[in-house]
Specification:
The chain is an alpha/beta fold. It has 2 domains: 5-193, Rossmann fold (3-Layer(aba) Sandwich), CATH 3.40.50.300; 215-304, 2-Layer Sandwich (Hypothetical Protein Yjia, Chain: A,domain 2). The chain has 10 helices and 14 strands. The two termini are 35 Å apart. It holds the Pfam family cobW.
Length: 309
Amino acid sequence: MIVPVLLVAGSLGAGKTTLLNHLLANPDGRRIAAVVNDFGAVDIDAQLLGTVSEGVISLKNGCICCSLQGDLLRTLSAVIKRDPAPDAIAIETSGISDPAEIIRNLMDPVIFKVAPLETVVTLVDPQRLRDDPDLEQDALWRSQLRAADFVLLTKSDLLDRAVLDEVRAIVGRTKPQSAIFEIAHGVVAPDLLFSRDMRAPRTPPRQLPTTSEPFATITWTSQAPLSLQRFQQVIGQLAPHTLRIKGILLFAEHPAQPILFQSVATRGTLAPSPLPPADGLTAQLVLIGRAGELDAGEIDELLGRIVVS
């Protein structure tokens, strides 16, 4: 059982709890476990509430919310052992904590094997950044920004285009524009936070509130032998044009060991997969990017290069 982890960082008041509330109310067919520092700050809709016991709120949609009890690794171990186990874990960091330390803890080999860190998002309140120019030089704020795979500019519905563009330029000094997204009311497309599972979802996804960012998905499969070395070269070319890639592959160099590949933004990992690709396939990849920025023909041509002739 592998349960991916979403790490939510950002300053006090940036909108982290609003994002978590949205995830818990709109889990998109997933059982989500939210781990928070302040239980009282998570104002859960009464219609979702189920039972409350031992520091855990069990919601009627299968999600749970629990407070951070003791150290993070012990809390994660307890969450993973729940029955039924969650499909994903979202961790809200304290607004005064450096996510770099939490990331180091999550990279512990024992935890990473069962709860791999999948995505780090840092939330930024554009108005606060504009009102407080010194914030850009704050060491903690800069560390929160550097740790992010994606930066979410919150409360974007309250600001005009000129302000948002100004803030995008400031954040762009640290992160590429392709990693910066504007959101309102905590609404984020699930494809940005969680990679697609190779399996069918447990339940049909609910209709989610509309997001301002349309995404496109391309699936690529192969039945031919594949080269690991060529794959690593091709991924370097695909990364700038995709937000996520996830898949299971069998390489000619290791024909008996299926490999799980995951990339988010420019961070990618290769690890042994507990499952092989679907019957008869050597590759099963899902690529996600902004609508209009994924070229199916180019992707097919690039991935075709990894085939061993």
